[in-house]
C-alpha cells in the first residue's frame, strides 16, 4: 500500500506537467482547429527565461518564475501574430498552420542552441532536496508538491476565467462558432491573442518546474510536448477538463508501469494509451466528435 501511494503521488506530479501543457493544446485547437506543435517549445523557452533571470540577472526565484510566465505568454502571442495570423487571414488550410507550427518549434529549439548552447543546465537550488514525509505513508519532494500545487491553482484560475469573465465567455463562443462570434461583435483577434497568452503561461509553469525537477536543455519540450499532446487527445482535444484528465491519467499510468512492470516501458505507455483511445473512442474520454482533417 505504501508503494502504491508513493507511485500515485509521483504520477500526480508528472501528470501535472502533462495536464498544464495539454490544456494549451486544447485551447488553441478549440479556437483555431489546428494542433500547435510549437507549444512544446514554449515550455523549453520558459525554462531558459527563468534560468536566465536567476543566473544572469540574479533575480529571486519567485520573480524569475513570474517573469517567465509573462514573457512566455507574450512570446506565444508573438508566434500567433507573426506566424499563424497571416496564414489565417489568407484563408490558408489548417495543414499549412500545422506545418508552420513544426517549423516554429524547430526554429525555437535551434535558436536556443545557437544563443545558449546545447549543454544541459541544472537549476539553482531553490527548494530543499529533503523529501517531506506524509505520515509515514509516503514521501514527496518539495518540487513535486510545488508542481502539483501550481497545476491545481492554475486549473482553478482557468476555470474561473473561462466561465466567469467576459473574455472567457468570448473564447468559448469563438470555439463554438467563429463566424457567429464575429457577428455578435466579439473581437476575434483579441480573443485568439488571449488564448495564446493563457496557453503560453500554462506551458511556462510546467517548463520552469520540470526544469527544476530534472534539468534544462534545448530538447526539454520535445518528449514532454508529445506526451502532453497524447494527453490532450486521450482526454478529448478541445475539452479543458479532458486535458487535465488525460494528463493525470497518463502520468499515473506511466509511473505505475515504471514501478510495477519496468521503467523501460515508461515512455511507451502514453502512446499505447493514445492508440487504444484512437481505436475505441477517437473523440477522447470527454471530447466531442469533430470532423477535422488536421
- Order of adjacent strands in the largest pleated sheet: 1-2
> Uncertain spans, ≥5 residues at pLDDT below 50?
none
Q: Tell me what portion of residues adopts beta-strand conformation.
A: under 5%
The mean pLDDT is 88
- Structural class, judged by helices and strands? mainly alpha
Tally the helices.
11
How would you sum up the major sheet? 2 strands, antiparallel
Give the helix level as a range of percent: over 70%
Number of strands: 2
Q: Please trace the helix and strand order, writing H or E for each element.
A: HHHHEEHHHHHHH
Task: Give the SSE layout.
Layout: H1 2-32, H2 39-55, H3 61-89, H4 94-116, E1 132-133, E2 139-140, H5 142-164, H6 166-176, H7 178-183, H8 188-213, H9 220-235, H10 240-260, H11 266-280
Antiparallel strand pairs: 1-2
Helix pairs in contact: 1-5, 1-6, 1-8, 1-9, 1-10, 2-3, 2-4, 2-8, 2-9, 3-4, 3-8, 5-6, 5-8, 6-8, 9-10, 9-11, 10-11
Please give a structural write-up:
There is one protein chain. With 294 residues, this protein is mainly α. Helix content is 74%, strand content 1%. The protein has eleven helices and two strands; from the N terminus they run ααααββααααααα. The chain has a two-stranded antiparallel ribbon. The protein is globular, with a radius of gyration of 19 Å. The N and C termini lie far apart (44 Å). The mean pLDDT is 88.
Summary keywords:
294 residues; mainly alpha; two-stranded antiparallel ribbon; globular
Amino acid at each position: 500500500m505504501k508503494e502504491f501511494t508513493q507511485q500515485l503521488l509521483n504520477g500526480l506530479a508528472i501528470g501535472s506537467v502533462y495536464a498544464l501543457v495539454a490544456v494549451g493544446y486544447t485551447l488553441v485547437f478549440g479556437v483555431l482547429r489546428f494542433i500547435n506543435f510549437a507549444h512544446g517549445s514554449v515550455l523549453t523557452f520558459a525554462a531558459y527565461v527563468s534560468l536566465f533571470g536567476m543566473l544572469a540577472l540574479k533575480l529571486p526565484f519567485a520573480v524569475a518564475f513570474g517573469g517567465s510566465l509573462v514573457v512566455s505568454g507574450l512570446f506565444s502571442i508573438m508566434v500567433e501574430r507573426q506566424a499563424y495570423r497571416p496564414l489565417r487571414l489568407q484563408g490558408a488550410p489548417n495543414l499549412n498552420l500545422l506545418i508552420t507550427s513544426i517549423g516554429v518549434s524547430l526554429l525555437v529549439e535551434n535558436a536556443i542552441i545557437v544563443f545558449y548552447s546545447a549543454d544541459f543546465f541544472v537549476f539553482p537550488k531553490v527548494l530543499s532536496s529533503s523529501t517531506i514525509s506524509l505520515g509515514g505513508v509516503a514521501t514527496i519532494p518539495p518540487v513535486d508538491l510545488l508542481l502539483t500545487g501550481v497545476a491545481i491553482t492554475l486549473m482553478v484560475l482557468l476555470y474561473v476565467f473561462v466561465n466567469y469573465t467576459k473574455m472567457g465567455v468570448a473564447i468559448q463562443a469563438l470555439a463554438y462558432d467563429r463566424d457567429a462570434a464575429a457577428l455578435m461583435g466579439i473581437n476575434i483577434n483579441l480573443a485568439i491573442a488571449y488564448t495564446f497568452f493563457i496557453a503560453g503561461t500554462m506551458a511556462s509553469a510546467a517548463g520552469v518546474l520540470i526544469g527544476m525537477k530534472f534539468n534544462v536543455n534545448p530538447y526539454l519540450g520535445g518528449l514532454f510536448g508529445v506526451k502532453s499532446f497524447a494527453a490532450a487527445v486521450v482526454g478529448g482535444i478541445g475539452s479543458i477538463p479532458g486535458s487535465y484528465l488525460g494528463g493525470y491519467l497518463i502520468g499515473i499510468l506511466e509511473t505505475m508501469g515504471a514501478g510495477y512492470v519496468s521503467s523501460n516501458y515508461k515512455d511507451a505507455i502514453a502512446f499505447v494509451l493514445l492508440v487504444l483511445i484512437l481505436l475505441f473512442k477517437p473523440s477522447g474520454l470527454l471530447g466531442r466528435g469533430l470532423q477535422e482533417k488536421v
